[in-house]
Protein 1
Amino acid sequence: MLNEKVAELLNTQINKEFYSAYLYLSYSNYFSEEGLDGFANWYHVQAQEERDHAMLFVQYMQNNDAKITFEAIDKPASDFKSHMEVLQAGLDHERYVTGLINNIYSAAYDVKDFRTMQFLDWFVKEQGEEETNSSDLIKKMELFGSDPKSLYLLDQEMAARTYAAPSLVL
């Protein structure tokens, strides 16, 4: 049985992951409206991954007979002034999610909930990858985004991203 505080934090994370999916769909829509279909694709794939993360938390809670409460999903920001603003917001959001995962891990550690810590190990690694990917997008935009031909090629690179289901098995 899960510790009450750990279960509460895990439940909150479910809702945060669904919000992340919603947020990234907003980013995808922004880039689609800007004519950058590759970036739109990149964030659409990102939204799919976040939805899957939420579902992994749901399955973990269900496997541990913990009550799940779905909350309303906040409206994501959608009024952006530049491509770089969206990319920076994405990195900031990933850093925020990393903090949330770390808080759950800390709470599990405090009560010696090693099973939850092991479950979260995958997310700790995943967040490292998410932050790196977001940071790399910013670096590429800084290098190439001001030149239309380079931006076109960068957009083509983003279009090549494909969805891959998470590797975590519960």
Protein 2
Amino acid sequence: MTAYIALLRAVNVGGTGKLPMTELAAMCEAAGFDKVKTYIASGNVVFTSSKSEAAVKAALEQAMQAYAGKPVGVMVRTAAEMAAVRDANPFADAPGNRVVATFLDEAPPKDAIAQASNINGEEMALGKREIYIRYTDHGMADSKLKIPAARTGTARNMNTVAKLAEMASNL
């Protein structure tokens, strides 16, 4: 059994994509996942499964489509991958709530940072299947930063990444 973390895109953010975490847990259990635990109300769930990452992603996307009536992006990482994202944080000296990892399905294009616009003090770095962003003291909410390569991804701050890595390692 592999410990996985699934990150849903645009769930319970800004009043869109309402999904009670009890519903998300029930969907995961119905998909055959074990030891299901959610974390905060923004579409984070850890669980174990004998299925492949692709099969886990497909099962969750299908369940979310049925629930929401529209596609919902799902990013999946193993416990080891989430720990690696936490450990590879290039902005580890910054507060965890000022640095996010934007999770992608594939490696970001090498020119992802060059394609970014509306940069106002933010710093960026490429990861394996992530783009790290360090926000200024004004935070993410006031940022106008646009990263075209991150359009279909979903971001989590490093505090959340660390907590999810810990939860998954304990399954």
Protein 3
Amino acid sequence: MISKRGRIDTFIAKRLQIPKKAVKELIANNQVLVDEVVVTQADLQINEFSFIVCQDQILQQRTRQYWMLNKPKGVVSATVDKQHPTAVDLLTGVDKELLHIAGRLDVNSTGLLLITNDAKWSQALMSPEAKVTKSYQVTLANAIDEQYIEAFAQGMWFEYEGITTQPATLIPITRYQAIVELKEGKYHQIKRMFGRFRNPVIGLHRQSIGKIILDKNLPAGEFRALTADEVNWVKL
């Protein structure tokens, strides 16, 4: 999602449905404030979190939101969907304007989902260059063995995209369960990697994204705000 930056005169003209010439007159008369500072330039750059006041009327006042959701099965990682309940639907009592999901899970997968209105933060967290490790608990239909570990560590060729996956870590828990840690997120990547062994994934649960770990006290379908430490470890 792209950060909503733009000029102050364009914003006010659209917000109040007045010509830019009228906006410039307001600015010349010290009637426009951004973040409690009088605006003197019509081309001043603002963003979605700028606090904007014009003639004592608040035109924009939005705070940054960072939410952790324990996504249940059957919920889609989307803001709007006509067929299924969405992750954002579960955030009751929250201002949902500009909310988006940082790192999606498919409808049958469960676990940690991060939802925010801060595009710059989510881009820093999920960009391929950040190489943030994501951890999943995977349940398989068939037993796994040592050859899985080596294959995941070496990376796998995905013909459709024409790429080889980055090395991933597979840690067996039982014969039918394992932890998978990877630093990328190709389309259905984990399911496709196990698919090379003709071993269907019957359960996929995300436990962490970087240093943000799913709260063990958070029941499926529930959410909470991220702590300051959880937010601030993401380097903008």
Protein 4
Amino acid sequence: MVYCISDLHGDYFKYRALLENLSFQSRDTLYVLGDVIDRGPDGVRLLQDMMARPNVVPILGNHELTAAICLRWLLEEITEARLAALGTEQLAVYQNWMRNGGEPTLRALSRLSQEERQELLAYLQEMDLYAQVKAGGRTFVLVHAGLDHFAPDKALEDYELEDFLFCRPRPDAVFYPDRFLVYGHTPTRLLHRQMGNPPSDTIFRHGNQIAIDCGCGHGGKLGCLCLETLEEFCV
């Protein structure tokens, strides 16, 4: 089976509980649509677990992007002196990371060896911006945040990095007529509310768009979509 989740934000226990609920096997595939790290305590532990599973496919999120930028500067040793030596631009990126929940991730990184940090950085740098997947007779475009500056005939490789990582799609937006766009980043409770419905930490669907960030990083649930059957799971 082929599944996708997003926005774990350091919640290792919900991730493992979901894998157990799915009876996830080596023949299955799990796409993780970004924002594995930050806010919660176990983002680095999650990444290391994912790295050890060839059937777990990461898609880059904005939190991974920021961590990768900062980790390049902090790779040798994460100390107060190293932080104090950052330039103005570097410091702005670092401060933005901390404001957006990066402190638990930085603490965990500081406990790793240099070799482990190198491996983690390589993993972050190799993450794709999107995946196009066929499952259950349907085609899915999997991204972190949506597709900004969308045009139905625009090739995926022609979008900018920011178009995949930072946008907030309108809940009533119309995307592909023949493909499902699946994304995280925006908690679905907000999308439900924007459509005039009670806020709910459940997967949001409208036409051919499916939003799966059920608020795991904000006290909500970890949502999961099975691409083969369109069945929904949550923990």
